[in-house]
Amino acid sequence: MKKIVMSSMLVAAAMSMSACSTLRGAAIGGAGGAGVAAVTGKDVGKGAAVGGTAGAVVGTVVD
Q: pTM above the 0.70 mark?
């Protein structure tokens, strides 16, 4: 029983750490996408959405 509890705790900790990487990647990607869109005269909202999506994917894959 003790091994099952410890395994569950380790899985939960690993999942929360990967969620942090996903959110961090999304935030960085969203800011970068918005910045590039602003500089190039494109729609900032769309740039942030695309950058945020790409950043979330990269954050998940890298972690």
A: no
